[in-house]
Amino acid sequence: AAKHAGGDDRHWFDAAMDRAADDDARLAAELRRAPAEGQLVALYQPIVTLPGGAPTGAEVLLRWQHPEHGLLAPDTFIPLAESNGFIVELGDWVLREAVRQSMEWRDRLGDRAPERISVNVSARQLSDPHFVDRVAGLLLESGLPPHRLMLEVTETAVLSAGAAIAQLHKLKALGLRIALDDFGTGHSSLSLLLDCPVDVLKVDKSFVSGTTAGRAGAIIVRNLIGFTQDFGIEAVAEGVETTGQAAQLYEAGYRFAQGYLFGRPMSAPALEELLTAPAEPGYRAVHAGAGRG
Ligand code: C2E
Ligand code: MG
Ligand code: MG
Ligand code: MG
Question: Which residues neighbour 281 within 8 Å (Cβ) at sequence distance 6 or greater?
Answer without folding.
Answer: none
